[in-house]
Amino acid sequence: MLAASGSGACAELAVDLSLVLAVDVSASMEPVEQELQRAGFIEAFRSPALYDAVRRGVLGRIAVTYIEWAGETEQSVVIPWTVIKQPTDAIIFADLLSQAPLHSGGFTSLSGVIEFGMRLLEDSHMEATRQAIDISGDGPNNKGRPVTWARDDALARGIVINGLPIMIHRPSVFPEMENLDGYFRECVIGGPGSFMIPVQDPAQFMEAIRAKLIREIAGRPELQSLTIPAQARDETLCLAGEIRLKQQLRH
Q1: Domain extent listing, the chain
Q2: Which of 61, 72, 80 shows the shortest CA–CA distance to 20?
Q3: Distances, alpha carbon 173 to alpha carbons 35, 37, 104, 137, 180, in Å
Q4: For the residues of 92-105, what is the DSSP string, one character each?
Q5: Gene3D superfamilies annotated for this entry (predicted)?
């Protein structure tokens, strides 16, 4: 199935969008959250509304890959580059995702997954009108180089970064970041039309993921970026994960 619409076909195809779906599987992600997150992507690709957004593009096709990430060197491709140009392509993508096992990792390296996403986009050799990395995560960067450095590298290449901050309050040994949406806004997302959709309740996963994907596929490049200029950033906020990890290691 992938031979017809996956990486082998991508080298010669022009697409409206090349999209890296980067899904958090770090240790702070509880099994139920992982399952809801995966189910949200599966249902989104089975949605007629998603394919309708693809069809309305200038070329009427996109390329997408689904990866899971955690620490600085913990990134894995679950579904390789796949071209979506027919409703059946999206259904096949969803079916393959439903059959893939769930994994779990360690730390949280947003900078690591941005760097990995940039390499995937470069190695795909696709001619894409737009390139985007779509990151879900439930905590700030605490491994690898500062997230803003990686984010700025991606923006310099014309890559848009969107976010799905997961802000579900639950009993856990991992301290939560109360203003994770603000962290994503100031430190993670960026590029023309960039946006984020926070998830604050498990029941929101399905709709949030579907809405985010449809908005990304439709594209709104004329919108102002939500990136905070470097001179205006709260650097303490953008290093919150690293600071918190150091404090935990002292105790």
Answers
A1: 2-250
A2: 80
A3: 20, 21, 16, 17, 17
A4: HHHHHHHHSPP---
A5: von Willebrand factor, type A domain
pLDDT, one tens digit per residue, over 123-135 is: 998 999 999 999 9
Q: What is the pLDDT of residues 49-96, one digit of tens each?
A: 999 999 999 999 999 999 999 988 899 999 999 999 999 999 999 999
Superfamily of domain 2-250 in the CATH hierarchy: von Willebrand factor, type A domain (3.40.50.410)
Output the pLDDT for position 3.
36
The CA–CA distances, whole Å, from 178 to 20, 37, 175 equal 27, 20, 9
- The DSSP code for 155 is H
Q: How many CA atoms lie within 13 A of 172 on its CB side?
A: 17
Closest CA to 55 of 81, 10, 90: 90
| Whole-number pLDDT of residue 23 | 95
Q: What is the pLDDT of residue 41?
A: 96
Residue 79: CB atoms within 10 A of its CB come to 20
Closest to 130 in 3D by CA, of 219, 27, 35: 219
3-state secondary structure of 137: strand
pLDDT digits (tens, 9 = 90+) for 1-55: 343 344 444 445 899 999 999 999 988 888 888 898 999 999 999 999 999 999 9
